[in-house]
Amino acid sequence: MTETTPKRRRPRKRVILLIVVLLAVSSAVLAVWWPYYCEQVAIAKIDELGGLTRTGIVRPRWIPEAVDDRYLVLFERIDAISLSVPQVGDAELEQFRKLTNLQILILNNTQVGDAGLARLRKRKKIWDLSLDQTQVTDAGLEHLRELPNLQWLSLKNTQVSDAGLKHLQGLSKLQLLSLDETQVTDAGLAHLKGLNKLVALSLNNTQIGDVGVESLGELKTLRYLSVCNTQVTRDGYWALRLALHGCDIRWTPPAK
């Protein structure tokens, strides 16, 4: 009588297949659920801070148009944020890194500075950014180069000066730019020359004067220009009127 060697048990093909299927399904569910979870966490945090959000459904290509949006809650994404709250600083913007559909961002009257702008890098869908009365400086504007779709930018009452404007040169889609109450002078206006889609520019309460009129006159796409409370004289105003046909120019005489 001879001993028989016990056969080594091998996983059945069905078991292996089942495991593969379960892993695939789990990965698919996680890929859908995790972004939704991150968005909901951000909404809750922004609401807690006193801000506002707007959301919309981002329909994946593989879902037919016949499927109603009310069944696509998991694909709800933030597209606009208004967070004009004084206590908001750079740290609060960390959560924005995961907001892939963010398009409009208003951060007026906050403590957000250059480090905060770094956290917005690669949010390539942003086209409207308002940073009035923040701590943003010239160095921070370098991060805006990674927002290629930016169309509206407001920097009113910030520390931005001539040096910062050179970072705007690559924003080829920029249409509206507000530089009211900044440190911009005549020398910095030359950096705006390549903005071929710029239609509205506001330079109220800055130190620009007649020397900068030549640079402004080269912005032929402008349809609105405001230079109130600047050093632009009456002669400079008329020079602008002659150079920018069809442009609505707002001007007040320099204070004596």
Secondary-structure topology with pairs:
Elements: H1 13-49, E1 52-57, E2 76-82, E3 104-106, H2 114-118, E4 128-130, E5 152-154, H3 162-165, E6 176-178, E7 200-202, H4 213-217, E8 224-227, H5 234-243, E9 248-251
InterPro entries: Leu-rich_rpt (IPR001611), LRR_dom_sf (IPR032675)
Pfam family, one: LRR_6
Protein name: Internalin-A
**What would the principal axes of the Cα set say about the shape?**
elongated
Largest sheet properties: 9 strands, mixed
What is the H-and-E element order? HEEEHEEHEEHEHE
Structural class, judged by helices and strands? Answer: alpha/beta
Would you count the extended β strands for me? Answer: 9
What Rg is obtained from the alpha carbons, in whole angstroms?
A: 27 Å
What is the overall number of helices? Answer: 5
Q: Measure the end-to-end span.
A: 121 Å
Structure description:
- This protein has helices at residues 13-49, 114-118, 162-165, 213-217, 234-243, and strands spanning 52-57, 76-82, 104-106, 128-130, 152-154, 176-178, 200-202, 224-227, 248-251.
- The termini are far apart.
- Residues 22-26 have low confidence and may be disordered.
- With 256 residues, it is α/β, with parallel strands linked by helices.
- It is elongated.
- A nine-stranded mixed beta sheet has the order 1-2-3-4-5-6-7-8-9, with helices on one face.
Outline of the structure:
Helices cover 24% and strands 14% of the residues. By secondary structure, it is an alpha/beta fold.
